[in-house]
Amino acid sequence: MDDDQRAIATAIGAAVRTARKEAGLTLREVAVKSGLSQPFLSQTENGHAVPSVMNLHRLAQSLGTTAHSLLAQGERTPSSLVRAGEGRTFELAHDSVIRFCSTGSRTMEPNEITAAPHSEAGEHTEHAGEEFIHVLEGSVEVEVGLDEHHVLHVGDTLLYTSTIPHRWFNRTAAVARFLIVSSPPSF
Q1: Three-state secondary structure call for residue 174
Q2: Which of 134, 136, 126 is nearest to 150 (CA)?
Q3: Which of 6, 81, 87, 187 gives 20 to 30 Å between its CA and that of 146?
């Protein structure tokens, strides 16, 4: 684990412990609610393990919060500036990366995804609110429910109700880069 990964693991662990205590839950109760093992949750809280994106979502839901809230650092400020090449990142499946395009707690969540060739989001997700996608580079396929499949290219946008199970794919041999904005925050 390098220094950045250690810092992320420590920050996530502290946030999980705080959220669990605020919810008045034991590790055992969180394990049952989230479907994650109690030893893994203990390692997470102690900064020795970083949950996958899907496990972070499950963990956040069991704590009555969002993954974004667990990852957010600092208090809400009137503005949030994240310069190009900066911002916290989190590795998704298949060497794809999410970059958080805002800091602190917000009512919407703008994130930039850099999707490696032949990668995908993994499992379908669903959450309250709406989600907006804007493609910056390459192309991405978005599946919304069982019947909707959209191939988006540079400049294309898609807005959908995020209570419907959804996920993205990069089925090409090139990197895809796109913005996903969720309201309210879901990550």
Answers
A1: coil
A2: 134
A3: 187
Q: Which of 106, 111, 93 is nearest to 169 (CA)?
A: 93
The helix or strand, by DSSP H or E, that contains position 44, with its residue range, turns out to be helix 38-45
- Tabulate helix, strand, coil % of the chain (nearest 5): 30, 30, 40
Per the CB < 8 A criterion, the answer to whether 139 and 165 are in contact is no
Averaged pLDDT, groups of 10, the chain, 187 residues long: 71 86 90 93 89 86 85 62 85 82 79 94 85 97 94 97 93 96 79
Kindly provide the residue ranges of all beta strands, DSSP E only, lying in the chain, ordered along the sequence: 89-91, 97-100, 109-115, 119-120, 130-137, 139-144, 148-153, 157-161, 166-170, 176-183
